[in-house]
Design brief:
Layout (H helix, E strand, L loop, with lengths): L2 H4 L1 H20 L5 E5 L12 H9 L1 E6 L12 E3 L12 E7 L7 H15 E10 L5 E2 L4 E2 L6 H10 L14 H5 L6 E6 L6 E7 L4
Parallel strand pairs: 1-2, 1-4, 2-3, 4-5
Antiparallel strand pairs: 5-9, 6-7, 8-9
Amino acid sequence: MIPILKNPARYVSVASRRRKIALLTAAIERGSRVLMVGVSALEGIGSTSVVERGLADHCSVMFLTYERVEGNPFGVPLVQADGRRLPFSSGSFDYVVSNAVIEHVGGPTGARQMILESRRVARLGWFHFTPNRRFPLETHTGVPVVHWLPTQLRERLFAKLGRPFPLERYCLFTARSLRRLDPSVTVRPATGRFPALTLLASGRSSPA
């Protein structure tokens, strides 16, 4: 069977990650100090994690995790913290980056706070990748189209499919809703053509 037909969600995810690291390494100067927010210490820094490992090979990266980490299994700088309340002084890093995190921080209010913190801590700029609500395949669940439905119907269908959609912690954004978060936000398609699979919300930090 053709790989994309056997597991379409996995196929588009792998292609998306390759495009993401290409965008980041083109935009971020080699050797820059980067904070990558919301990485899974168990899954997100392994040898197969294209974005995280690719960025670490290009820059000096501090990985921020939400889980408590025992030791340092991957041999990279780790800190446990919340992307909405970063434990760093202003301008501590050149850039702040996240990959599929901003949709998990408590809806528009949490996402707005994450952007404000990114702008404060990043000396030069910030980049946050997030799935596009307009894309027909919902990549976290692998289910097509259902995420477009009204809230209650959507939740019932996801539950029946055995793919619960954690509404209280998960908010899919469109380009328009990302721009509404903060006047400084620039949004562009990151992967795929219209409609883009992934959006890139970015911005330049204000001079101190």
